[in-house]
Amino acid sequence: MSEKNHRYLDPLSDFGFKHFFGRESNKDILIDFLNVIFEDQKKIANIIYNPTEYAGEYKELKKVYFDVLCTGENGEQFIIEMQRNPQRYFRERCIYYLSRLFNEQLPRGESNWNAEFKEIYLIGVVEFPLEYGDEKGYLHHISLVEKYTKKLFYEKIGIKFIELPNFNKPVEKLTTDLDKWLYILKNIHELTERPDVLDSPVFEKIFKIAELANLTKEERMDYDSGLKAYWDYHNSIAYAAEIAEEKGERQKAIEIAIELKMKGFSKEEIAEITKLPVQEIENLDIPA
Known about the structure:
By secondary structure, the protein is an alpha/beta fold. Helices cover about 40% and strands about 15% of the residues. The mean pLDDT is about 85.
């Protein structure tokens, strides 16, 4: 299906992710998502959205930009991040985000650690293999634990990674709310209608707000612009990989040609084998 024929927006795009999760009018969607991700660990009844640009209290600290940041009714904070492309230091960035928020909880000038710290969690939705743990797992719960006993060392900081490439259930196999959520995130962009199994009020709302026809002109321009940038990036990467592969093959052909030339093969024979031009083969230097 071509992009112009899609009925629903891509929730993994920058615009789509914030359209789903970053709007006050849609916070019931984010609350449902968080409750599904946290399972029985906690029950979130309400959230308050926080600014996504975070400078911190000290001017020398680097600004950070969250995809979505919100606070629960008990003061716990949730960073929700969407990452489509692998990054060398993605894990470091996640730890940095958590540490920045954790650091800000200690009041300035406080030195006796007599402060009540709130929970901070980062939920990362990634569209690439993490190469972490179970290759078939798609929801990873990461905490500070003792290496050998696996006992929890500290419970107020945690990371939850959703590894979408590992989720491949077809619609007829969806049983849990987590299954349904991940199916939507990964597949709604390609659907033409809402499957019957996705019949909860939250899922019905998701399909309604995901309708491209329901976007304003400005929203559609933002969405299309973001997609274009994403595909331009991927096409550039693919082209660079193709050029690198061609250069690698060419270098290999030159090495073979030199070896054959040393063994006395004619330039015509070498050209037939390596597909290099005869003139180029003539100009190849044979090592002394």
